[in-house]
Design a protein that fits this description.
The chain has 109 residues and is mainly α. The chain is built from 4 helices and no strands. Helix 1 (21-31) runs antiparallel to helix 2, helix 2 (39-56) runs antiparallel to helix 3 (62-77) and helix 3 (62-77) packs antiparallel against helix 4.
Amino acid sequence: MPGDESGGHADDASDGEAFDPIESLHDHLIATEERPVEREAGWRLGEAQALAGQIAVGDVDDDVIRERAGEIVELLAAIDGTGDRDADDHVAAARELASRIANRPPADE
């Protein structure tokens, strides 16, 4: 969709609600919790999930959101694979979302 920050994925909005990339990022990272991932990947995913949780609560400054998203990008970039296909899919989606959030322009521009 032109101008759509979400990337236009069909499952990005459910029940007619607007797509929230920060909430989706957090959801993808939460989804890896129950997956059998390799130890090093699990540590990085836990750190990324904690950061995503900090910005998903709302009422967070845009600069802080972009900074935390950048940290998530770095953590996820260090994961070559998790050892689980489903977790890998969630990591790939989370990488894309974190990158979009980290690189979005400030709200006042």
